[in-house]
TrEMBL record:
<feature type="region of interest" description="Disordered">
    <location>
        <begin position="372"/>
        <end position="395"/>
    </location>
</feature>
<dbReference type="Pfam" id="PF06078">
    <property type="entry name" value="DUF937"/>
</dbReference>
<dbReference type="InterPro" id="IPR050330">
    <property type="entry name" value="Bact_OuterMem_StrucFunc"/>
</dbReference>
<keyword id="KW-0472">Membrane</keyword>
<feature type="compositionally biased region" description="Polar residues">
    <location>
        <begin position="386"/>
        <end position="395"/>
    </location>
</feature>
<keyword id="KW-1133">Transmembrane helix</keyword>
<dbReference type="InterPro" id="IPR006665">
    <property type="entry name" value="OmpA-like"/>
</dbReference>
<dbReference type="InterPro" id="IPR006664">
    <property type="entry name" value="OMP_bac"/>
</dbReference>
<keyword id="KW-0998">Cell outer membrane</keyword>
<dbReference type="Pfam" id="PF00691">
    <property type="entry name" value="OmpA"/>
</dbReference>
<dbReference type="InterPro" id="IPR009282">
    <property type="entry name" value="DUF937"/>
</dbReference>
<dbReference type="InterPro" id="IPR036737">
    <property type="entry name" value="OmpA-like_sf"/>
</dbReference>
<protein>
    <recommendedName>
        <fullName>OmpA-like domain-containing protein</fullName>
    </recommendedName>
</protein>
<keyword id="KW-0812">Transmembrane</keyword>
<feature type="transmembrane region" description="Helical">
    <location>
        <begin position="208"/>
        <end position="226"/>
    </location>
</feature>
<feature type="domain" description="OmpA-like">
    <location>
        <begin position="293"/>
        <end position="408"/>
    </location>
</feature>
<dbReference type="GO" id="GO:0009279">
    <property type="term" value="C:cell outer membrane"/>
</dbReference>
């Protein structure tokens, strides 16, 4: 279920639907979007935090099993039908209260303070997000017959991605939700007596020589350790640095290392969690740099399509959603999307397919609220290879989508 929680929430609370939701709540679109940009990862992280303890894991599992969830709603249903929206919000807030009985309104209050929406709207949005998230978890639990341990493991696997996506300003208000450690003064004091040593009542003279032998042995061991440390200290330091550099290079170049996610701040207070050095990471940093020149080409390295099709894979849709957020944060940005193929196969099939894939990306951006005038497309076919078509690796690099920044 890697990334599926935030992906599902973001697909439900898409920008166009959020605009309609802001209308029925009587809020401006910008603060509503800002509130949801914070709530989606915050609610997710809060639910994940509950399963970090045994009691919380049991409680969440029972809630998901015993609560009569309706079919997972679309946001259009939540927007268009007032009764449905109200019931979903009340249900979500009720579930949140069961997980955090001492803090039923604190997340909504923090969201209102952070985003500028009214406390009432923040409460409704919190309930809707919780309702959609718990409904999705219920569907995952039942359709996949997950045990409590499996559900807990899947949720904990998304801890970092959820926390990194929370805007810094909002995260500062949510220590209670994210599981910050208690201060030392709050830790319970040990009150039970310490049992006496087994030979506490023996005469001291009986065992003095054992203490002497032990002390001599410790001194000898300490001497050997210090001698070894002095001899190897420099080698160990250099070796550790070299290993660290090698690991980093290997992860960056061979593509087999674990993905490292980083937080990227966007204008307007939004914060993305993206894979380090990925397309969206590089694009966001380029746009944040003053004096950046155009045109500039970026390869959409984590955008994939179904085989012999222009359909974007489910794994790639979150990366398109991140591009939508970046373009919303930079309203004057204009791009051209170019489809490229390798030189194998029939050109009569490959060339149109490269154009169709570029068009499909454009349509996804438009559906996410980006004006069509800001996005153009071009079919490149196999005319712009970046690697040799004689190897499988080279052909894979040539089958790509390029995004060209044409105007800032």
């Amino acid at each position: 279920m890697s990334n599926s929680l935030l992906d599902h929430l973001r697909s439900t609370f898409a920008p166009t639907a959020v605009s309609e939701l802001s209308r029925v709540l009587g809020e401006a679109p910008a603060p509503t979007q800002k509130a949801l940009d914070g709530l989606l990862p915050a609610v997710t992280a809060g639910v994940i935090n509950r399963v970090s303890g045994q009691q919380g894991a049991i409680q969440l599992y029972q809630l998901l099993r015993d609560t009569p969830f309706a079919r997972d709603p679309t946001l259009s249903q939540l927007v268009d039908t007032g009764d449905h929206r109200q019931k979903a919000a009340e249900s979500g807030n009720g579930l949140f209260k069961q997980l955090y009985p001492d803090q039923p309104n604190r997340l909504a209050d923090a969201t209102a303070q952070y985003s500028g929406v009214s406390p009432g709207s923040a409460t409704t949005l919190t309930g809707l997000v919780m309702s959609v998230l718990m409904g999705f978890l219920h569907q995952q639990l039942t359709s996949r017959s997950l045990t409590q341990a499996q559900l807990t493991a899947l949720l904990l696997g998304e801890t970092d991605s959820a926390r990194l996506a929370i805007p810094t300003e909002l995260a500062a208000l949510l220590g209670w939700l994210l599981g910050t450690p208690r201060p030392a003064s709050a830790m319970p004091l040990r009150t039970e007596p310490i049992p006496p040593a087994a030979n506490e009542d023996r005469p001291a003279g009986v065992v003095w020589w054992r203490w002497l032998l032990g002390a001599l042995a410790l001194l000898a061991l300490l001497f050997l350790l210090l001698r070894g440390c002095n001899r190897d200290k420099t080698q160990q330091t250099v070796g550790a640095s070299a290993a660290s550099a090698t690991d980093t290079i290997a992860s960056d170049l061979d593509g087999n290392g674990p993905e490292v996610r980083v937080g990227v701040d966007l204008p307007g207070g939004r914060k993305l969690s993206v894979v380090e050095h990925s397309f969206n990471d590089s694009l966001a940093r380029y746009l944040a740099t003053k004096g950046s020149q155009t045109p500039r080409v970026f390869t959409f390295d984590n955008l994939t399509f179904e085989t012999d099709s222009a359909r974007i894979t489910a794994q790639a849709r979150p990366h398109v959603a991140d591009l939508i957020q970046i373009m919303q944060a930079y309203p004057t940005l204009q791009i051209r999307i170019e489809g490229n193929t390798d030189s194998t196969g029939d050109e009569a099939i490959n060339d149109p397919l490269s154009g169709e894939r570029a068009d499909r990306v454009k349509q996804a951006l438009i559906q996410g609220g980006i004006a069509a005038s800001r996005v153009s497309t071009r079919e490149r076919g196999d005319t712009k290879p970046v690697a040799s078509n004689q190897t499988a690796t080279g052909r894979q690099k040539n089958r790509r989508i390029d995004v060209i920044i044409t105007k800032l």
